[in-house]
Design goal:
single chain, mainly alpha, about 70% helix
Length: about 140
Amino acid sequence: MRERIMTLTWTEQLSVGNAIIDSEHRNLIGLINSVEHALRSGNEHALSHAFKLLTDCVRLHFMNEEKIAQAAELPFEQHKQSHQYLQKELQYIRDELEAKSGMWSEGAVEHFTRTLGNWMMDHLSGEDKLLKPALLTLPSDFSAA
């Protein structure tokens, strides 16, 4: 299988101005890159492990974003619905890949890596950027704790 890695990279332009959310975003980018690597290697065990880490971290990240938004009194209902949809989409991708038991065509690998990359970039540069103006009015280490 050809190695055409589309590695995602964190840049400061993706920052929303909150150290917690930005750190989680950097971590999620790394995890998506791990999923892509496992997909391209055809290693079913590595993919299962990488996807478990990704889905666990996505769930935690979305909970943290919600708590921060609530503590900062930001409107968040539409964003929350988007999170629910994205978690279902991520689970669908995981189920589809696991059903193939490591037998992924190059087309499937390209489709799923592109889908995951687009999902992450849409989350970072779309939805979460809407939070940035309000988050910049708070201390960069603002948390809901």
